[in-house]
Design brief:
Layout (H helix, E strand, L loop, with lengths): L9 H18 L2 H27 L7 H18 L3 H26 L4 H21 L1 H4 L5 E2 L9 H23 L2 H11 L1 H6 L4 H27 L1 E2 L6 H14 L5 H23 L6 H15 L4 H22 L4
Antiparallel strand pairs: 1-2
Length: about 325
């Protein structure tokens, strides 16, 4: 009910994306190109996680395994089969296929469990993939990781910036259509009351597995972009830290909004980089993780439903009182 009181106008979104499109020509800064490219990539990752947490009510601690599968798929194909366009297409296609298969299998095996059991089991499965990546050194090179060559047109930072920006916009449009469809409304019903949804005749497991597959595929795609940006991959892309980061991005931005994933990604990445840089110039900021935690606590206290979610509530309340004044003539 609240969401219909506040939707970001298409004109505003268009202006924001136009601003981002012209920004590289205004800034002319390699540092900012790399930073904003990371924001776009993690925005895709956060939006994929929001499908689980925000729309289906599923808490997963293993979402990074799909991100890592995407990153390793690109890296291994580029390393083994060369940096041709064909290898790139095959790598991305393999990442999409693998993440779809793995997310479907994991979903079928785990989504029957209650929320906290499911969360812990996804953490265990993700840990299994970390072990495989560490031990399968002939392919993954273990914890040290490896560098790889990419197609020539992707080596330009500006090109990667525009590709990642375009992919973020496409992801937002696709997932917005997905969540606003009848299928997406069933997911919201499952989040609110799964038992009642089942009583209405919906096979909730089927819907949750599909949501898991969609989230896994987009997470894997963001991992592909991440690996192509760094031209390097190691086992950290499968670590729980990436899942915790994307969880923070989703919560801070606002669960169940999609836009919140973009905003959360921007805030987390910018705060992280600024605090890291401050730690290099003054000893007070050497324990920047503590400051980061304080920032997170303050944001959650001020915006208990995330920035966009809380803004929607404030807007809904203001609209309610305005309509009440118009109907009753009562002020105050």
């Amino acid at each position: 009910m609240v969401s219909r009181f506040l939707t970001i106008p298409r004109t505003v979104l268009f202006l924001i994306f136009v601003f981002l499109a012209i920004l590289p020509f205004v800034l002319d800064s390699r540092y900012w190109l790399i930073l904003l490219t990371q924001v776009f990539i993690f925005a895709i990752f956060a939006m994929s996680y929001d499908i689980l947490l925000g729309y289906t009510g599923i808490v997963s601690f293993g979402h990074a395994m799909f991100f890592g599968i995407g990153a390793y798929s690109v890296a291994i194909f580029m390393d083994r089969f060369g940096n041709s366009y064909g290898s790139l297409i095959a790598a991305v296609g393999t990442a999409v296929l693998l993440t779809a298969i793995v997310s479907a299998i994991v979903g079928l095996l785990t989504l029957r469990l209650q929320s906290h059991f499911f969360a812990m089991l996804t953490l265990a499965v993700s840990g299994l993939f970390v072990v495989i990546a560490e031990k399968w050194r002939a392919v993954t090179h273990g914890t040290e990781g490896f560098t790889f060559a990419i197609p020539p047109f992707l080596r330009d930072r500006t090109t990667m910036y525009f590709i990642c920006l375009a992919m973020m916009i496409i992801t937002l449009l696709v997932l917005s259509r997905f969540t606003n469809s009848p299928f997406g409304r069933v997911l919201v019903a499952i989040r609110e009351n799964e038992k009642r949804t089942e009583s209405l005749g919906f096979q909730t497991l089927y819907y949750k597995v599909i949501a898991s597959v969609v989230a896994g595929v987009f997470a894997g795609f963001s991992g592909c972009l991440y690996a192509l940006t760094l031209r390097f991959v190691n086992t950290t892309v499968l670590s729980v830290q990436y899942t915790l980061d994307v969880l923070l991005m989703t919560i801070i931005g606002g669960v169940g909004t999609l836009y919140g994933g973009i905003l959360g990604s921007a805030l987390i990445q910018l705060v992280h980089h600024y605090l890291t840089n401050l730690a290099k110039v003054h000893w007070i900021f050497e324990r920047w993780l503590i400051l980061f935690g304080i920032v997170y606590i303050v944001v959650v206290m001020i915006f208990p439903q995330g920035i966009i979610g809380t803004a929607r509530l404030w807007w809904a309340k203001s609209r309610f009182w305005k309509m009440r004044e118009e109907r009753t003539g009562f002020h105050g």
